[in-house]
Description:
The protein has helices at 16-26, 39-45, 48-68, 78-88, 94-106, 132-148, 160-163, 167-171, 175-194, and strands at residues 5-9, 33-34, 72-75, 110-115, 152-157. With 195 residues, it is an alpha/beta fold. It has one domain: P-loop containing nucleotide triphosphate hydrolases (Rossmann fold).
Amino acid sequence: MKQQILLFVGADRVYKTTLAHIVAHELGNDKFYYKNSAEHNTFKSHQDKFLMDLLYADPRLLDYLTQSGNSIVMDRGWCDEYVYAKFFKRKTDINAILSLDTAYAKLGAKIIFCTRRSFKGVSDDMHAKLTDDGLQQINKIYEEFVHITKCQVLRVFTDEMVTKCSDEERLAGRYETIVEDKQREIVKTIMEFVK
């Protein structure tokens, strides 16, 4: 199997993690999935560590992937640092982000940008700024990054995974089937993109 480097990105509450796990499984190895296990703790109390990861850990991961030819399905990465540093107005290194982006593009990395048509009523309790308005602003910064990345990008709308269901269908037990059908449709689109 040829090397696959996939990066799932997007604002909070867009089903990145769910879809990344499914795609890793579809690629034939659940171990392809990678997420920084300290991300939530870092976000809550050590946001300056994200810059250190960008400058030291991320280039090391890139070097490993370059040398090994191994595949990976990443849940967040360099472009998330661009977005969240800008949103929270914290220090970052744009040149390091763009350098990583160029290097990943040379390896054929592909970005799956998970988004919603609307963030109305969606929030995340990780931070007071992660309201529906905040998530919409974050989404706009992702749109900005999509225009500067050198990697191929696939945009998938995930809000329909839970909203395209009438009350009657929900009461009749069709809700889970509709969600599963939408997930399958999105995963199929992603798998066609990565081949």
